[in-house]
Amino acid sequence: MEVFMNLNEFAAQYYGAYGDMVHKPVPLDAKETALVLIDVQDCLTKDYYEEAWPKFGFDPEMLKPILEELDSYISGTLENIGKILTKCREKGIRPIHIKIEAYLPDAADTGRLHACAGMKYPPGMREGNFLPVAQPLDDEIILKKTCSGIHVGTPIDRILRNLGVKNVLVVGFYTDQCVSSSVRDLADLGYATEIIDDAIGALSKERHEYALQGIRKIYAASENTEALLNRLDNML
């Protein structure tokens, strides 16, 4: 019988074994699989934070090395998102793009949580623009939300069911916020769900890793970009 040093060690192995039994990489069938891209927009960029963070009392000079680290980290995640999006389009897997943006010009319809965080993005604001790496094509679905979860904030469940989608690949931001909320709901609503570990990100690598512990192999299967691209290449 295996001896565990502490409860945390046991929990890690327990959830790992459970996840290996329950959560397998989702089937890649073009008709039944969708790629959901969450909040891949301008409010992730270094330029945005250079303007936003001083409003909360942070010294711009002290932020420079932190912003450089953030930019490097986010850039790698965005690169992976771009590769996955390109390959999914090539294989006929439908992308669904979701972003944070209000409907009213004064953003009065923004949810309380986002409003308190200063995330009031009326239509046309730079913060609501999709980043070039994930720019939707004319025939791709775009949904808007003013809260964290895609199911609370958009009609995506009805859209996925109307499309006959059973399997969902998830990429985007932030792992510990909108991604986590969305993945949990996807799983509870019965979708076979998979997160691409290095194509989702948080404000820091540490927050990303902590958040992964709460969703990976519990609510969703997971793999990295390279593994997913290899499977996509081998789709029939």
TrEMBL record:
Membrane-spanning residues: none
Domain Isochorismatase-like: 33-221
MF-aspect GO terms: hydrolase activity
Keyword terms of this UniProt record: Hydrolase
Annotated InterPro entries: Isochorismatase-like_dom (IPR000868), Isochorismatase-like_hydrls (IPR050272), Isochorismatase-like_sf (IPR036380)
Xref: CDD domains: cysteine_hydrolases
PANTHER family, per database record: ISOCHORISMATASE HYDROLASE, PEROXYUREIDOACRYLATE/UREIDOACRYLATE AMIDOHYDROLASE-RELATED
Family named by the database record: Belongs to the isochorismatase family.
Protein name as annotated: Cysteine hydrolase
Phylogenetic lineage: Bacteria, Bacillati, Bacillota, Clostridia, Eubacteriales
